[in-house]
Amino acid sequence: MHKKMKLDKIDLEIVRELYDGRTPYKNVADKIGLTTNTVRNRVNKMLENGVLQIISLVDPNAVDRHESAFIGFKIHPRDVNTIMEQISTLKGVVGAATVSGRFDIMAVVMFNEEHSYSRFLDEELKKVEGLISMETFFAVGGKTWQLRYVL
Fold it and tell me: Which of 26, 38, 145, 147 has the highest Cβ tally under 10 A?
């Protein structure tokens, strides 16, 4: 596995200016004092190295019959990387990370009528071996709560 590139101060300035993902490279270049080609090259390098994604996000509360939740998982310590990979690929999972605290892994999961919470428990979680326990926290609002649409 190759090591991911580290972002420098200029990369972070570019990312901040691309916050909405639609800002023209020329505008970014003018704002931070670079050429358009330099901005384009840096963005392409970040995209190629997997440290940047330019994606669309949706407020799950704005989509009828959709909801989202944070799910914390306790797992067998020897299986952290394997289980993390398995959880990341389950239907409805927007993202997952290993965390500190009372859980080992936290995932953000999206549900709708077809892919309900019950279906996630019954059909998706049984694919993952090594789970000790889990706790679900349903999102009930948030001013800036937006997710990739994965369903």
Answer: 147
pTM: 0.78
Range of the domain at 132: 60-138
Total of domains in the chain: 2
3-state secondary structure of 39: helix
Same domain (yes/no): 69, 124: yes
List per-residue pLDDT tens for the chain, 151 residues long.
456 789 999 999 999 999 888 899 999 999 999 999 999 999 999 999 999 998 888 888 788 999 999 999 999 888 888 999 999 999 999 999 999 999 999 999 999 999 999 999 999 999 998 999 999 999 988 888 888 888 8
Nearest partner of 6 among 51, 54, 53, judged by Cα:
51
CA-only gyration radius of the chain, Å:
19
